[in-house]
Amino acid sequence: MRNSRQICGANMSKRSGSGVGASLTRLVLIEFIALAAIGIFSGVGNGATAGLGFAAHAQAQPAVPSVAQKEKTVAGHAAGAFDVKVEAQGDADKADGSTLVRYSLDKQYHGDLEGTSKGTMLTAGTEVKGSAGYVAMERVTGMLKGRSGSFVLQHSATMTRGEPQLSITVVPDSGSGQLVGITGKMNIIIAAGKHSYEFDYTLPAPQ
User: Fold this and answer.
1) Does residue 133 sit within a domain?
2) What is the mean pLDDT of residues 44-56?
3) Domain total in the chain
4) What would the DSSP string read from start to end of the chain?
5) What is the pTM of this model?
6) Which pLDDT tens digit goes with each residue over 121-170?
7) Domain at 130, CATH number
8) Range of the domain at 49
9) Residue 62 lies inside a defined structural domain of this protein
């Protein structure tokens, strides 16, 4: 787990409010520190499961091979910096044992991935110190190493009494333009107050 102790953020702490609490503030900002060691983008685990399902389907219908089986893919690695803005949307929904808060996400990516993203995050804080969770969807639009288009990232994270677990995956078949067919996983790091990303992905080979 990389730099898990660095999960923090001035923007989030200013906006989260006392209802969400320090533990939720810490968890929400983990969204920007994808931890590769726990399968950020769980593209490996989920992809393998999906692959087994497709294989079974292909065996059942051998006369109709899938397009995915015919397509050759190429692996890529992208890295760079990004800026992010997180803002609370509406009032917190408080009840016994939990507090729900909705946030908007607004990012600017630089480097091998040049573009912007917008998304929505829903967080759940608890009365137990260090325990919380969030889910989010983020649409990224821009240029990835010379190929333009968009794709969607799905976020899911929990923190169990201070121990974080995070998964961010490219939503299957969410790619558009020259990024149709993209899959992958991203690692996002915060160091010295700056955000950076590493993105391991696959795309169909150019024809």
Assistant:
1) yes
2) 33
3) 1
4) --SGGG---HHHHHHHHHHHHHHHHHHHGGGGS--GGGTTT-HHHHHHHHHHHHHHHHHH-TTS--HHHH--EEEEEEEEEEEEEEEEEEEEEEETTEEEEEEEEEEEE-SSEEEEEEEEEEEEEESSTT-EEEEEEEEEEEEETTEEEEEEEEEEEEEETTEEEEEEEEPTT--EETTTT-EEEEEEEEETTEEEEEEEEEEEPP-
5) 0.66
6) 999 999 999 999 999 999 999 999 999 999 999 988 899 998 888 888 89
7) 2.40.350.10
8) 4-53+72-204
9) no
